[in-house]
Amino acid sequence: MADSYRRASSIGLTATVGAAMVGALLAPDEGWAQAAPDAGAQADANEALTVVGQRADFQQTKPHLSRITTSLKDTPQSIAEIPQKLLRDQNDTNLLDALRSVPGISIAAGEGAQQGDNLSIRGFNAQNDFYRDGMLDFGSYYRDPFDIDTIEVLKGPSATLFGRGSTGGVINEVTKRAQMAPVTAGTLSFGTDATKRLTIDEDVSSHSLGGSAIRLNAMVHDAGLAGIDDAHMRRYGVAPSFAMGLDTSTRLRIDYLRQQSYDTQYYGIPWLNGRPAPVRRSNFYGYADSDYLRSIVDSGTARLEHDFSDSVELHDQIRYSSFHIGQRAVEPLLLNYGPATDIVTGNPPLSSLNVMRNVLALSGPSTLLDNQLEGTARFRTGPLRHALVFGFEVQHQTADITRYTYPRIATSLLDPMQDAPFPYSYTLRSVSSSTSNDTAPYLNDTIDFGKRWSVIGGWRFDHYTTEYNQIVAPAVHVSRSDDKPSWRGALVFKPAENGSVYFSYGDSFDPSGENISLTAATAAVAPETSDTYEVGTKWDIGRLSLTGALYQIEMHNVRETDPSDATRTILAGDYRSRGFELTAAGHITPVWEVFGGYSYNDVVVVSSPNPLEIGNSPPNAPKHTVALWTEYSFPAYRLTFGAGVNYTSSRTASSLPQAGTTIIERAPGYTTLQLMAKYHINSHLTAQVNVQNATDTRYYAALHPSHIVMGPARSALFSLAASY
């Protein structure tokens, strides 16, 4: 049934986009008459290379998140806004590819129920810090950007805005919502890595019902992984959006997302003596005919807004999401030749080493019910001008996960058997049920005094509870309740209209039950806490935004295993991150544009009950990251060329040495190059090619203490995009 649905969806979407592209190809070319150099339009040359209805600009000026009332320039926090133009020009087909455009982000690998998008921001894990239009996007799945308009990366603690987590920062996905401006667009892509991809975006509106609109975004994606044997991704998505009252003071929005994936999951290669095993990139250690990762995401959101006046607005937003995961994948582990599973003593030939196929298998649903009641009020108290945001949030999350144990079968490290039969017999490993609840009032006030000064203060109080039950022996029933306030304060000085200098402080916390899971050990410990100090400056110079920031993050009470009792977890660790970053976004000239920057993070374990850990870097915390994308346009020839460089320095998979050794698992740094060329056939239709990993660099894209996910080989993606 699912395969039939996918085929029917693909046929219908292909017909829709094909018709749009034929119409675009036959459309008159009047839009280009104004782009000729002798028309005196050089100052608007970049706009001439824009798909109709979309501004060609990487520069963003205002956060989309309603809880932030200031412009980006005046917001005392490092925020990277990945605009729709960059997503389109890089032709990103998953969210992680888009996030590689932001310095300070490093990609990590997941395991078990923690699959999907996994990353660190400023050296701290942020897998549980994804938000969608300001509300928690909790599912452990691989997000497709087909319905995303902008991605906001808010760095540093944001607990007063979002609640628990957010030590290094959060990701907020801003979706394509129904609007009064009409849209008809589609993209058809084919790749050398067997990619076949189709997207559509259609918005129709009417002035009936006070201004109503319906928008539909849809996607079908089928792809391999360049240079990796047997890995495969299949998914489809549909995201309708409806709005009414857009021309009035009372507005209703209803949005829905359905994304379903069926992948042959690639779990990478094993570690060998603390380094990635020297094997072929193409090696696939799983069971190609039996491995899978299935995910089904359904998320519905309703938002009612009312403007009481020009200065007072109130809205209520409610969301119900369900997420179902099913996984059976192989983690390749070296057989125990030494004191730890990936340590080989002596100097045996690689051809004599075997890998154990550790099957990870689980299934089960998770749900989220989230309601946010929020208001904004602008008013004066004497000479002070206030922009006050106040709200109350209630969350209810559940997770019911069943895990299975399969026999472990050995295969060769250098030449794994691709056609080995799968051992279908299994036993139940665990059956768990967990529930988390969070209730939280919050306030954020921006106070302007004079022409040059602002003070920002924020407060939130979370009552967070988790209950966990496991019914397969040994049976477990534990619970945890935490009451935790969060604070934020900042001072902003504006020496000129186009610039600001700021100092900010904020804190955050990570409760034991943050992942909707507890153990007898973790239920007894209080939340981890973090403090961040940041000083920075932001300047808008024409259509170019420049930012710089210095920061320090201190994470206290890090959960550690008690060295005297392995069954106990204690709060004994401290991590510290010190760094700075420089970024640029926008136009250097009318035809030359840039996005990205450099980030330096010095993250160390300051204290730990294990002395071998002190002074090491926490997992997935590279010291240097560079993410830079640039484009140059030739309006007279209807051409745009782009190139991007990503650099990640070496990083560790764990701060702890391998058991019984002093060996730290570390992957080397790498640099990758991306290229783009776009030809504007006419004002409605463009042809584009993107080359990923153009130098065919061998690199390690994501780390886990038990395995390493290799980065894909060089590939090219060819696309036709139509827009009216």
UniProtKB/TrEMBL annotation:
Protein origin, superkingdom: Bacteria
Compartments, record wording: Cell outer membrane
Gene3D superfamilies: TonB-dependent receptor, beta-barrel domain (2.40.170.20), TonB-dependent receptor, plug domain (2.170.130.10)
Pfam family, one: TonB_dep_Rec_b-barrel
Keywords linked to the UniProt accession: Cell outer membrane, Membrane, Receptor, TonB box, Transmembrane, Transmembrane beta strand, Transport
Domain TonB-dependent receptor plug: 72-170
The TonB-dependent receptor-like beta-barrel domain, residue ranges: 247-693
PROSITE patterns: TONB_DEPENDENT_REC_3
Stretches assigned to coiled coil: none
Membrane topology summary: Multi-pass membrane protein
Family (UniProt): Belongs to the TonB-dependent receptor family.
NCBIfam families: TonB-siderophor
Protein name: TonB-dependent siderophore receptor
Source species taxonomy: Bacteria, Pseudomonadati, Pseudomonadota, Alphaproteobacteria, Acetobacterales
